[in-house]
Amino acid sequence: MLRMTKRVSTFLLFLVLFSLSACRSEPPNTTIEGPSTQIIRWRMVTTWPPGFPVLQEGAERFAHNIKTMSGGRLNIKVFAGGELIPPLQTFEAVSQGAVHMGHGSAYYWAGRIPAAQFFSTVPFGMTVKGMNTWLYEGGGLKLWREIYAPYHVIPFPLGNTGVQMGGWFNKKIKSTEDLEGLKMRIPGLGGKVFAKAGGNPVLLAGAEVYTALERNTIDATEWIAPFHDLRLGLNRAAQYYYYPGWHEPGAVLELTINKKAWQSLPEDLQAIISTAAQAENLRMSSEMEARNAQALRELQAQTHTRILAFPDDVLTKLRQLTQQMLAEHAASDPQFKQVYEAYSAFREKFSTWDAISERAYQRALEK
Predict the structure, then answer these.
(1) Which H or E element spans position 95?
(2) Residue 3 assigned ligand-binding role
């Protein structure tokens, strides 16, 4: 009888354990869903020539990283300037939805959106550190997107050239008088300031710069910085290489995305694009610094090239003219004024901290 009772107890215990195990299974209405396996194919155009170091290469690396991070769900085919559309029609193509993405710099659209130049670079403005801080943490990116909203375009920072060089000159610049009548390839707001100084700004495509300088069609040109300038051969066309690049202290490169295309993406792919853009923004600006440092050594070793600083009085005059030019534009363009005031307010606050942190540290190293 005792044996029978034990057998019954064991059987009942088994039934209880079995029931508890069944209760722990997933509820019948619960579904576990993974990412969609749909493959999305986008097209991206840039303003850069095919194979252009750092800038075009960075755009292509950005697209490759997105494909990898998305597990192949988002494939972006990148076209260099002129391969699909003319380079300076990039913004328009993205705006109209002819392509999904673009890569260039906001000052290329200055004729259509003058205020866009603040999201690229401003003479005597903020460097890459200040620009990134303003865009990511100071409200700059939010304002940038508001300015682009009527065009159905969503912008992201995607690279920075850093502080550029002042340019190549066929004669020494000893005073502001030497700028008068000087024919120089210099676009954007910097060109407007140069004109106020008595110079003659000339607009030329990159492919025309070397020939124009070598044949004295122009007297001077700015391009980018040592790495790209050396690659273009400008050191063979002019002797005097001036610094600093007062006209472009930290040119932001931009990723533009068509709004409708962006909204069609699931949240995880939107997050991948945002993260990849931030990563490439850092990578591209770091790559510029590394390559410029190496190229500068090569230029310093050349006896023909003379690397010189602009005289203090020249920079002081150009800074004064910059302030006049910006104030004039703000007085005639409400949107330009809005962005100018936001940019200036942040720059003033940021400069107060920068003066006793990084700039103070750099001064201490020089003593």
Answers:
(1) helix 90-96
(2) no
